[in-house]
Every structure is written in structure tokens, then in C-alpha cells.
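Holo model, magnesium ion. Inputs:
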Amino acid sequence: MNNERVKGVLYAAKKPTEAQEDKLIEFLVSRYGEGTELEWVEDASVKEGFRLEVGNNVYDWTNEGRLSQFKDMIVNAIGKKTSDNIIPLIRENIKDWTPNTAPTEYGVVTSIGDGIATVSGLRSATYGEILLFSEGIRGMVLDLREDEIGCILFDDTDEISEGSRVKRTGRSAGVPVGNDFLGRVINPLGLPIDGKGDIETEDYRAIESPAPGIIERQPVNRPMETGILCIDSMFPIGRGQRELIIGDRQTGKTAIALDTIVNQKGKDVICIYVAIGQKASLISQMVTNLKKHGAMEYTVIVNASASDSAPIQYIAPYSGCSLAEFFMHQGRDVLIVYDDLSKHAIAYRSLSLLLDRSPGREAYPGDVFYLHSRLLERAAHLSDELGGGSITALPIVETQAGDVAAYIPTNIISITDGQIFLESELFFEGQRPAVNVGLSVSRVGGDAQTKAMKKSSGSLRLDLAQYREMEVFTQFSSDLDEATQKQLTYGHGLMYILRQAQYKPYSQHQQVILLTVALNKYFMDVPVKNIQGEIARLLEHFEIAHSDICSKIDSTGLISDDDKQIIMKYALEFKGQN
Ligand code: ATP
Ligand code: MG
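Output:
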């Protein structure tokens, strides 16, 4: 407080008695120091009780005030939701409720627009705190300045105008979480948007929470199989890893994430797909596809669509991550996809510009690195003491004309543990998934790969690198010697083997068998256009005639040299029959 004398203004219908006045002054002095004065203002609108205002602090002991205090508490607990089950909730809460004697700090909206409000008067509001506007509209503090604060709004803002009152809640933004969320489509505030009724919540988690520390973690040592041959063999992903999927628009980025989700069926992994700034029609199509492949029952979709406001898009990945953490702390393995973080950065950029923050490179604010680093740090493999759960993150980033050196792509590449780089050129050639083998990398997943996969994928990466090099050099020469010709045919065939249709994940034994025979040049004499058909027939044959070796690979994750020879022998026998 400054040197000015503090004055409490009492609004009441009747002048307080001397005894009442003494008590109030005593109260004021205890809170605001010696010399605090009291002034009575006649206010006929105050029917019962009184309202005491000291600067921005309001002690509302009118009947309406107490009622609204209670209403706020309820709204605060369940959001702006007035469904039928609110009455029992009130009954339950009112039992042990006494009105608040702490002052409520009020502020005033000084400007509003585009989902942003500036508020003056809330001197002690903190970063990330939820503010309550009139009509139960909620906002979150995102910018603290000397004399006012910037706040993003989550609900429809029509009901707020300049001069509206704003109240602190003392709580940071959070979302409801629970096991009941599985199989549902929700918005970033945790409310269902699939029309299937209420979701039972078990807890409430802050959307921002610190990432686990070093002691709380253990190394990534278990595989998160994508079922995509090209990725599992050369860029394996481990549980707890962050692997970026990066590429131009329409190169199959989402397809890789969805295939990975579909491949988790029966593997006891929970999947969360966070859609940021996508068309609602695409999401509903995706839900249909996931349902068709039986993947929706272990999946939650958090959707902040293109038509949602920037604040909603901004919090979407953090809410998704909170839900993921809820499952991780139960010891479960979670896969979370952020599709995509370029649109997330754009939403944050528009918020920052509206909040008058100074723009930096590409007009992004200075803290755009922190935006994603604090999100992706929350992916972890927890230690056994903490239950051993994990969050594996697959962030997606869209590039412009393959430019991985742009601001947001370089930031996220440096945060993640590797990237899968998809290329338009390959995609249009029909090489799908369009993974660029030279530019993709997985920095920690190798430790998590099963021995069988590691052993059978052996020289694949090297062979492909040689093939690419040779392909460039021999482009214009017509008379190639036989050895070079063979190398080219072999490499060309390998590229065809890596082609894989959408929603057709390979199991571990299928990948091992396929790699073993392919690297032993089984497909050398098969014309490339027949390779996919040949693969399907061969794998089916193994499934039927040699299921013992298939189940052995799946259950042990091992393969011996003898096994490899046996596989090759079976394969050649099969070839001979045809
Ligand atoms: P956007 O930039 O629009 O988000 P994206 O990079 O996520 O696009 P997808 O939507 O995954 O790309 O895929 C683009 C198209 O390519 C889709 O129609 C999809 O069905 C098809 N596609 C993706 N992967 C494959 C594949 N392996 N085989 C065949 N078609 C595929
Ligand atoms: Mg996509």
C-alpha cells in the first residue's frame, strides 16, 4: 500500500450501529493497518447484509454476494455446464460450506476482442491463473504487465464487454481426467463433443505441469512398434521417446501416426490424438476409420479444430498431455500424437501479437521455443518406483517446400529424439510411406528394438544408402556392368519392399521374416510390380505352414542364425512350389 490513507467504503441500506462500526474498523485495521477509515454510503439496492470495498478488494456479505460466491464455486468446479446433475452436486457441496471472509479481488475489463481480454486491477493474479468473468466465462492469464494483465478466453465472449467485472479464482487452468475418457472425442477443456453424453471424471489435472526429473526417469528400453516396416527396421521408436514426423503438406504424416495407433491394438497402450487446427470433417472421418480397425476403444481424441478460437488451439496439446500423464502415473504406456505443432505455433503467434508482445523471427514471439520444449519434455519413461509408465510423443510438423531449416522445424528437431522425414517427391512416385531414409533418424530407439528386429534389419540402411548413391551416379550411363546392374535391381526392389498400404501394420514376426528373406535377395528375380503381391503370399504361407516359428519370434523377440537359415529355407521351398 502507498502512503495514501486506506479507506473502506461500506455500502448498506442502513447506517451501521456504533458497535457494528467498531467491529468493522477493527477488521479493517487488522487487514490494512492503523488509520484505516470507514465511510458509509447509503445503498438501497443492498437488501440484506452489506458490501465493503477497499480499493480493488471487495468483501461481499450481501445475500446476493454470498449466493454468487457459491455459484462461482460450483461453476469453478464443473465449468460452465448447467446440466441436470448440478442440483445433487450443490446439495453435496453445501453441507460443509461457509461463506468466504477473504476478500475477493475484482478487476475490470479494459478491452476485449479476438478471444483476448485485458484486465486492470488484479494486482496479485498469477501467470496461468483462471479468471472468472461475468456469466461464468473463464479465461486464463497469459501476460502480466505492470498495470494490467492480458488474458485469453475459453468460452464465447459475446457476454463480456468493456467494464465487466472479473474475479480471481486462485486456481491454475486444468482439465478433468479419468478412465472414462477412452473412446471419446473431447475438446481441450475436457468436455465431450461426440454427442455421447457426460464423461465420468476421476480427477482434475493442471494443464501445465513440470516434466519428470532425471531421477524419476529410466532409459527408453521397450519398443513402441509402429507396424510400419520402414520405421521399425531403421528408425525404431521406444516407449518414452519423442519422435518428430515432419514433411510437406499431404505427404502422409497423419497416416503414419494413425497406423501407429492402429498397431497398438492388444498391446495395452493408450493412445491420445490431439488435433490442432484441422477440419472437423477430417476428424470425424478419422474416428470412423479408427472404429473400423477397432482402435477407438483405447484412444482419446482431443480436438481443437480450425474453427475453434486461438486460445482453445493453444491449450489443446497441454490438455492432451495432462490426460496422458493421468494414465502414465497409473503405470500405463501412452502414445500421444500432436497433429500438428506448426498450427499450434501459429495459434500462439496470433495470441502473442494480439497481446502486443514484440514479434521476433517470422513474427513468432521470443518464447516460442519454450512453448514446445516444455510440452515435449513431459514425454518420459518413468522409473519402476513410480510405476514404470510412459508417454511416447509423436509431434507432427508441416514444412513449406521441404524446408527443414525454417524456424519452427529446427526448434522442434532440436527438442525431439529424432525425426521421420517425409518427402513429396517420394510420395508422388508412389513410394508410400514417403520416408526419406537419408534424412530420418531415431536417436534412442535402437536400445528399445528387440534383438530379432535388430538382427534381421542388419544391413538394410547401408544397402539403401549405397543404392541411392549409385542411382545418382548411373542416371545417365547406359552400359552398366553386371555387378552394378545387380546392385541397382536389388536396391530398387528394397524400396518396393518398404512400400506399405495404410492401415496394414506388420506384426513383429512378419517384419523379421520379410527382412530376413529380402536381405538374402529373395526378391531379386521378382518384377517390382509383383513384389507386394509376393510379400502377401509369402507371409500368408508362413502364417499357415510355419506358425511355430512366427510365434517363437513374437514371444521371445529373439532370432538365431539357425532360425534365419530355416526361414530362408522355408521361403525358397515356397518359391519352388510356384
Ligand atoms: P496434411 O498436410 O493435409 O495434414 P498429411 O501429411 O497428414 O496431410 P495424410 O493425410 O496422412 O497426409 O495423407 C495424405 C493422403 O495420402 C491421404 O489421402 C492418405 O490416405 C494417403 N496416404 C497416406 N499414406 C499412405 C500410404 N502408405 N499408402 C497409400 N496412401 C497413403
Ligand atoms: Mg495431416
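Residues 247, 249-255, 398, 432-433, 500-502 surround adenosine-5'-triphosphate (ligand 1) (CB under 6 Å). The domain at 455-577 is CATH 1.20.150.20 (Lysin).
Archived with the compound record.
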